Amino acid sequence: MQEKPTGGGVITLTGNRSAVVDGCDGILDYDGEKVVLRTGRLTVRIGGRDLRLTKLTSSSAMVEGVISALEYSY
Fold this sequence. Notes:
With 74 residues, the chain is an all-beta fold. Helix content is 0%, strand content 69%. It has no helices and six strands. The model has no long low-confidence stretch (mean pLDDT 92).
């Protein structure tokens, strides 16, 4: 059974210290404990502590810090 595309981005985690979100098309919320990004039809929430956006382009974002949660929602 083949899954249907969700319109979301591709997330690459390196341990619990770095996340690269490709397909990011907007920042919805951002502080030291959460980063909320729009990726097509999905919203991605990254939770943790000492979080910071270290790279942002028109289609990707890099979040660094201590990542403790990753959540998708519509």
